[in-house]
Amino acid sequence: MTAASGSAGSAGSSGSADGGVRIGHLVTSGTFSLDGSTWEVDNNVWLVGDDREVYVIDAAHDAEAIVAAVGGRRLLGVVCTHGHDDHIDAAPEVADRTGAPVLLHPDDRVLWEMRHPDRRPDGTLAEGDTLTVGGTELRVLHTPGHSPGAVCLYAAGLGTVFSGDTLFRGGPGATGRSYSSFPVIIDSIRERLLTLPPETVVRTGHGDSTTVGDEAPHLEEWIARGH
Question: How far is 47 from 42, CA to CA, in rounded Å?
């Protein structure tokens, strides 16, 4: 598969000009399958790093494009925000080509094994874990609901949170399929994400970014509509 589109940019006060930590972005296209149905999807792939090292967040669909975006940098890890196949389908190939570990919350192993029954993740993610790249910390927030082991990554120094499929512009991630729960995702969003500074940029697993401040006023609307 090929990348549908791609872009790279900086975040926070550091940019590519001085070699500081920045955020890269690819959009890749493929499919998502669960509960006997398959959908065409576009996924956001995020890269956080400097000129020397980088993390990939959600290796979706296109290993070739992701490895090219990593370039000559050391890939510290392939971080999976959750185990749905559209977010992990390219993870083993990216890991094998770069020597980087695949990291997943253990509560999503059941989903991982649906796609990769013969390949285990290399490491685990848990609430409060910290990943460091170029001096910037990414703090793991366990945010179940869309899936049992869903996580977000909060980079306070960059003023952003990578929300996977937990929070989007306009509401929570989908909870109408196996291994999901609407009350649980609401609790995760309320307790883990809407408590972040309102200016925090929410970089999502699909579609456009938003901010905590833009989404927080609508929590009761989401609860009332039930999705």
Answer: 16
The Cα 21–Cα 137 span in angstroms is 10
All residues at 6 or more sequence positions from 65 whose CB lies less than 8 Å from its CB, including other chains: 2, 3, 6, 26, 28, 45
Written as one letter, the residue type at 130 is: T
* Burial (Cβ within 10 Å: 0-12, 13-18, ≥19) of residue 108: buried
Fold of 3-225: Metallo-beta-lactamase; Chain A (3.60.15)
The Cα-based distances of 21 to 18, 171, 200 in angstroms read 9, 29, 17
Strands 22-34 and 136-142: unpaired
The first and second tokens of residue 190, run together, are 């309320």
User: What CA–CA distances, in Å, run from 226 to 146, 175, 179, 202?
Assistant: 14, 10, 17, 22
For residue 173, what is the DSSP state?
P
pTM score, two decimals? 0.92
pLDDT in tens, 67-104: 999 999 999 999 999 999 999 999 999 999 999 999 99
Instruction: Locate 111 and state its tokens.
Output: 């989903």
Structural tokens at position 95: 């890991």
